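Researcher: Next sequence.
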Amino acid sequence: MAVKVLIRRNVSDDKQTELSGLLRELRTLTTNRRGYISGETFDRFDKPGESLVVSTWQSADDWREWVLSPERQALQGKIDVLLGKETTYEIFEYA
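Model: Next structure:
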């Protein structure tokens, strides 16, 4: 069953450019993963620096395989250091 993953991040203005580069790398790797369907990135209108990524996967197992992969963990580690905290994830299944 397909799942949606919501990924929330907050970054200060002075780190936005560096974060954008890391997220481009992450998206490039993601698009080649088994089970990946699509992804959208949103910047919050009323709170600069806050973003939301909505990623769609064929299954929770496909997402889990990707999130635990060494290449993703390496990039995610750099992102979390840049943000100063861990990125949050929420996983939803279609009802």
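Model: The chain has one domain: 3-93. Residues 3 and 81 are 27 Å apart (CA to CA).
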